[in-house]
Fold this sequence. Notes:
Elements: H1 8-11, E1 19-22, H2 40-53, H3 68-72, H4 77-85, E2 91-95, E3 98-101, H5 104-123, E4 129-132, H6 154-164, E5 170-174, H7 181-187, E6 193-199, E7 222-226, H8 233-251, E8 255-260, H9 277-290, E9 299-303, H10 309-323, H11 336-349
Parallel strand pairs: 1-4, 4-9, 5-6, 5-8, 6-7, 8-9
Antiparallel strand pairs: 2-3
Helix pairs in contact: 2-10, 5-6, 8-9, 8-11, 9-10
The structure holds zinc ion.
Amino acid sequence: MPAAGGLCHIYGVSAPPKIGIIRDQRFLRHLTGLSHPESPERLSAIYRLLDYEFPVDFPQPPAQPATLEQIEAVHRPSYVQMVLATARRRFTHLAADTTACADSCLAAWLAAGSCVQGVDALLAGELDLCLALVRPPGHHALPERAGGFCIFNNLGIAARHALQRGLKRILIVDWDLHHGNGLQQLFYDQAEVFYLSSHHLQSFPRSGDWQEAGQGPGLGYTLNLCLPAGFNDADMLHLYREVLTPVVERYRPQIILVACGFDGHADDPLSNLALSAEAFGGLAALIMALGPRQNGAPVLLALEGGYNQAALTACVRRMLEAFTGAQTHAWSARSGLAAELVARARTVHRPFRVWTG
Ligand SMILES: [Zn+2]
């Protein structure tokens, strides 16, 4: 089995990107109840892929818990106490769709900690790209409440940690099917965190319309791309190539955080998009090309949605193939529909001159 470092000839650069994965069996102890889509089996299927099928070995350190201070940089102490109290009960409804067993608090703490740990590994230069394969997911969690299967806002906590460490330009890319309302709210009024989300507006939580672009000093630093039902691979690749590229070139992020959800896959039970695993391979290749491959910003990806196990593992496999350079992608993909969305994004954002020039 080749190591991840043996691929420099594919990249044509002197040093290959250093890729790491944070995983932990304790994430599987977060039980959500029978027939809940956010199940431990999602993650065990991905872990099996890594253990038995994917032909590259990555460093895979276990998760470290976040500190109370790191969690409370995002969440209100009263809410954190509420989450801690779930450890004393067999089962708790934190929100209508978000449940906790006695071990969920530990998993949530570790999920947030994994993202902090990923930021630290990237900033230390130990890794160029880190994939945190965690659950529960995070991008819907608000300072004072759980929601959308999320308990703590994992990437929000990571971004606050990166700010604490002195970073001034953090880019969050959210390609989950759903809008990351928690992430948007956390950084809506600050320019130090640029939040870019593509999502289906009519799906939960129904926020993230085009005109939501930030406020105060953050005006122009939230970019919402609303995808119509049936959006396909070519549409997605065209849209991201034309929007993400100028965002990275003009904003010049010091780190890129990716809310990495795969529930836009056509086979996902929550999806109304028409994406295949190829789209996520393409997005991964684009992120790699704009970040580590050009000696640009390091990248932390945290798992969000994705509720069909076969589709989820296919997407993760395709993404890892893109990161390791084992597959190429259809960069030339063009789409009239995506061109319309790019034009709309530019029209909304031109007055702010953050990425449109
Ligand atoms: Zn989602």
